[in-house]
Design brief:
With about 220 residues, the chain is of the alpha/beta class. It has 9 helices and 7 strands. Helix 1 crosses helix 9. The longest helix is centred in the C-terminal third of the chain and has 15 residues. Bound molecules: adenosine monophosphate.
């Protein structure tokens, strides 16, 4: 399977769709947000800095992100393709990522953009929660994504948590960063002829159906 890059505004459903592709196609799901949350939990100097930036909705430095990313895609489970969720986040990262791919003799693969109206994405904030153990994402505003037992993970029964950056003020910061820094990436990859668009504002099933169709082409 080709590598997949998912590009989307915050709360558009990258994490949910990545989990579904992972399950159906048995591909590793690499979320730089998750890698950074693990690094932040170390609570050393670098961890504290990462935590500060993430809590305020700002980007973490390209150097830190690229190091974590490169180490992760060098793992053997990435040899037959992987899903990137939240990376690259700006054109500079994409340029550096191209160099890493060349060095590791890997291809970019396909870029899937999840298109969504800002207000629909923002309205999902109040219900989002996730499992700190296995990373599964839920949303209590959406019957498709509500856990069976209140506040417990369906897969591992761990108590669900809310992200500290999931609040309306930080959302504005994160959304603006998306428009200014991440959206130009679509043009960058359009030039390589590898971009496909999906409407992710309807339901997670509908998003997934469109993605499956693209991956089957
Ligand atoms: P996410 O889980 O993808 O929503 O990311 C949460 C936060 O992690 C973002 O708001 C950024 O602070 C940071 N982050 C995740 N991926 C990147 C990246 N590729 N570059 C810079 N910062 C990132």
């Amino acid at each position: 399977m080709k590598n997949i890059i998912l590009i989307a505004a915050p709360l558009a459903g990258k994490g949910t769709e990545s989990a579904r592709i992972k399950e159906e196609y048995n591909m590793p799901h690499i979320s730089t947000g998750d890698l950074l949350r693990q690094a932040a939990a170390r609570n050393d100097e670098e961890g504290k800095k990462i935590n500060e930036l993430m809590t305020s909705g700002q980007f973490v430095s390209d150097e830190i992100v690229l190091n974590l990313l490169k180490n992760r895609i060098m793992q053997p489970d990435c040899n037959d393709g992987y899903i990137l969720d939240g990376f690259p986040r700006n054109v500079e990262q994409a340029i550096e990522y191209d160099k890493i791919l060349k060095e590791l003799n890997k291809e970019t693969g396909i870029v899937i953009v999840l298109d969504i109206d800002k207000e629909i994405a923002k309205s999902r904030i109040s219900g989002r929660c996730s499992c700190p153990n296995c990373g599964k994402v839920y949303n209590t505003n959406n019957p498709e994504l509500t856990p069976v037992k209140e506040n417990l993970c369906d897969d591992c029964n761990t108590e669900l948590i809310r992200r500290s950056d999931d609040n309306p003020d930080t959302y504005e910061e994160r959304y603006n960063a998306y428009i200014q820094k991440t959206e130009p990436l679509i043009d960058y990859y359009e030039k390589k002829g590898i971009v496909r668009h999906v409407n992710s504002g309807i339901s997670s099933d509908e998003t997934h159906n469109q993605v499956v169709k693209i991956l089957g082409e």
